[in-house]
Amino acid sequence: MSETLEIMIGISMLLGVIILTRRYHAWRIKRAYMLIVEDLKSNNAYDPESAIELTYAQRNVLKMGLRDHRPMALDHLILDNIVGTTDEDRYFLKDKTV
Questions:
Q1: Spatial CA neighbour of 41 closest among 93, 84, 76, 5
Q2: What is the DSSP letter of 67?
Q3: What is the DSSP letter of 52?
Q4: What is the pLDDT of residue 31?
Q5: Could you tell me the residue ranges of all domains in the chain?
Q6: pLDDT tens digits for 13-31?
Q7: Cβ distance 74 to 36 under 8 Å?
Q8: Are 21 and 29 in contact (CB under 8 A)?
Q9: Where does residue 73 rank: exposed (0-12), middle (13-18), buried (19+ CB within 10 A)?
Q10: What's 66's DSSP letter?
Q11: What DSSP assignment string belongs to 25-48?
């Protein structure tokens, strides 16, 4: 096998790994979106008065193991105006159609 072909195969495999890891993380974030929304719905947190605390809202730097995508997903939901926050760091669902 020529050296050029080996390099092309190596680059193709590297691109495949990059694409698969990006898809995996996108899938995990999507699951985190659904878990957060279901958590808020199950606790009937639809307005600031019924807002709840989410234990996974803050990132824990010292936690070892797999990456927790819920804090990042929660930040995205807040930026997209789907989830609202109160001054006491409590969360509620703004968009009930989700």
A1: 93
A2: P
A3: B
A4: 94
A5: 3-93
A6: 999 999 999 999 999 999 9
A7: yes
A8: no
A9: buried
A10: S
A11: HHHHHHHHHHHHHHHHHHTT--SG
